[in-house]
Model the fold of this input.
Amino acid sequence: MIDCYPDPDHNVCESGAAFEPILDYVRDKGLTSWDEYPYQAKKNGCDRDREGRTVARINGWNWVAGGGDEGALHLAVQDHGPSAIFIHASDSWASYRQGIYDGPCDGDLNHAVLVVGYGYDKPSDMGYWIVKNSWGEGYGDHGYVHMRKDGGNMCRVADHCVQVS
Done:
């Protein structure tokens, strides 16, 4: 998808891109499998032969939360499943290994990830989001990060959130 994104002047690898054109692209073109066209976090030029082997499509998408409303994001994940979000991935966020990430990360939105659930850690009395990153299993806890939930919109987790149908 990054290789075949139609706007060559927009570096989706560095910015996380904008949800609207990316999701419209997936709706219109579909997705190939990871095995067929693996993500490499860089633009390689579109391989049209592999691009055309669609294994999944979406019917559409909608905004489910915004403005920092973690309650709306909670309800969206609870009622409808995973939600794609933009966050600020700070250097400390990028070097996360385990536990509940509690900042700092209060900068511009620069990375897209997927909230797949949430939990509660009784010893720390802290809720957390279960977030899947795109950097593979070598990142964090086997590709996931537990980010503090209800912590003042940590990393701007609830600023821009969408779900697909």
Remarks:
- The radius of gyration is 16 Å.
- Strands lie at 61-66, 83-87, 100-101, 111-121, 126-132, 144-148, 160-164.
- The CA atoms of residues 43 and 68 lie 31 Å apart.
